[in-house]
């Protein structure tokens, strides 16, 4: 009887083809995983779509370039005026819109014409545009005296069209009578050689215009004479000159005070005066206090504020000779008060940082 031997199980060898199939299966698995990850990403994106996107805008640095207003001025306006509110990003960065920039440009233009920032910030865009359309800058009224300068200015009238020449003469008598009859913003005097005996004449002429608006055109003068004329705040031009130089000199003199006041008002120093934040007793205490670290900022700031407050009161009561002098003292008073308010803000920050407690009494 034959014995049947069981057949050995055949073992299949995995060749290159079979390995390739397994690789394909692996790739398919990877692709599936990638697909799952992509689906998860899409789900995440759909979730992000539900969140409001931050509106596009301009940084404070860009606004300073577009408007010409300093970053410090913008921050002070935002801190002191509730009507000047700027939106911020989630991380606290200021974000200005195109309308904000347009409003700031109009406000700066109106500040240069004498308006106060506190009056302008609450106004709507349409109101600011209307004010700008109505605000026409006045043409400087000029008186001219000399031998050859009146003729030169008459010849170059097209260049000097930005000026209104109300007096043009070579006669001192005509000049004096004209100055008594009409108002002038600038006075241009031409003299070939200036001697010491002529200084009295220039001083008398200075009384007819504001400081800085007397223009003297000359050929020769000694150094000490020039020094005295400059002390009178006269603008000196040495001949020969062209009418372009003269125009620039006159318009700069006519607008200097208005420009300065606009700059001061731009940082709220010529507007409303902030009341004192600290009492004199508190400042006296802070000027003698000792802190836990080697820092004497509280003492120095308190002493500085005490001095500023004293000068603020003095400048408010200072006597003035005329309206121009009164305007000057008013600017000194408001500027001092503005600096005092800024220093008080700094002292407040130091007090908070040091944990200093002040008696309210």
Automatic annotation (TrEMBL):
<protein>
    <submittedName>
        <fullName>MerR family transcriptional regulator</fullName>
    </submittedName>
</protein>
<dbReference type="GO" id="GO:0003677">
    <property type="term" value="F:DNA binding"/>
</dbReference>
<dbReference type="InterPro" id="IPR047057">
    <property type="entry name" value="MerR_fam"/>
</dbReference>
<feature type="region of interest" description="Disordered">
    <location>
        <begin position="1"/>
        <end position="56"/>
    </location>
</feature>
<keyword id="KW-0804">Transcription</keyword>
<dbReference type="InterPro" id="IPR009061">
    <property type="entry name" value="DNA-bd_dom_put_sf"/>
</dbReference>
<dbReference type="InterPro" id="IPR000551">
    <property type="entry name" value="MerR-type_HTH_dom"/>
</dbReference>
<keyword id="KW-0238">DNA-binding</keyword>
<feature type="compositionally biased region" description="Low complexity">
    <location>
        <begin position="20"/>
        <end position="50"/>
    </location>
</feature>
<keyword id="KW-0805">Transcription regulation</keyword>
<feature type="domain" description="HTH merR-type">
    <location>
        <begin position="57"/>
        <end position="126"/>
    </location>
</feature>
<dbReference type="Pfam" id="PF13411">
    <property type="entry name" value="MerR_1"/>
</dbReference>
<dbReference type="GO" id="GO:0003700">
    <property type="term" value="F:DNA-binding transcription factor activity"/>
</dbReference>
């Amino acid at each position: 009887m034959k014995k049947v031997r069981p057949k050995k199980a055949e073992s299949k060898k995995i060749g290159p083809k079979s390995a390739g199939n397994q690789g394909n299966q692996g790739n398919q698995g990877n692709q599936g995983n990638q697909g799952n990850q992509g689906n998860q990403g899409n789900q995440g994106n759909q979730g992000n779509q539900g969140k409001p996107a931050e509106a596009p805008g301009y940084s404070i640095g860009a606004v300073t370039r577009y408007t010409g207003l300093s970053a410090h001025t913008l921050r002070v306006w935002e801190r002191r005026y509730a009507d000047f509110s700027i939106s911020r990003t989630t991380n606290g960065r200021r974000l200005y819109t195109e309308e904000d920039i347009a409003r700031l440009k109009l406000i700066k233009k109106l500040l240069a014409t004498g308006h106060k920032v506190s009056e302008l910030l609450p106004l709507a865009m349409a109101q600011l545009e209307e004010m700008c359309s109505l605000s026409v800058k006045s043409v400087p009224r000029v008186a001219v005296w000399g031998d050859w300068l009146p003729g030169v200015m008459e010849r170059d009238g097209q260049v000097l069209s930005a000026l209104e020449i109300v007096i043009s003469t070579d006669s001192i008598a005509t000049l004096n009578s004209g100055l008594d009859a009409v108002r002038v913003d600038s006075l241009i005097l031409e003299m070939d050689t200036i001697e010491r005996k002529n200084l009295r004449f220039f001083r008398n002429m200075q009384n007819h215009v504001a400081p800085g608006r007397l223009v003297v055109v000359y050929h020769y003068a000694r150094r000490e004479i020039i020094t005295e004329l400059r002390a009178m705040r006269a603008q000196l031009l040495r001949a020969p000159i062209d009418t372009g130089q003269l125009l620039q000199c006159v318009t700069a003199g006519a607008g200097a005070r208005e420009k300065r006041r606009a700059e001061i008002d731009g940082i709220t120093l010529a507007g409303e005066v902030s009341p004192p934040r600290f009492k004199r007793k508190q400042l006296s205490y802070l000027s003698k206090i000792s802190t836990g670290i080697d820092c004497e900022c509280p003492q120095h700031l308190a002493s500085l504020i005490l001095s500023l407050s004293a000068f603020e009161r003095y400048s408010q009561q200072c006597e003035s000779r005329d309206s121009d002098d009164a305007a000057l003292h008013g600017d000194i008073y408001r500027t001092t008060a503005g600096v005092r308010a800024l220093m008080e803000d700094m002292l407040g920050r130091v007090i908070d940082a040091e944990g200093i407690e002040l008696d309210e009494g």
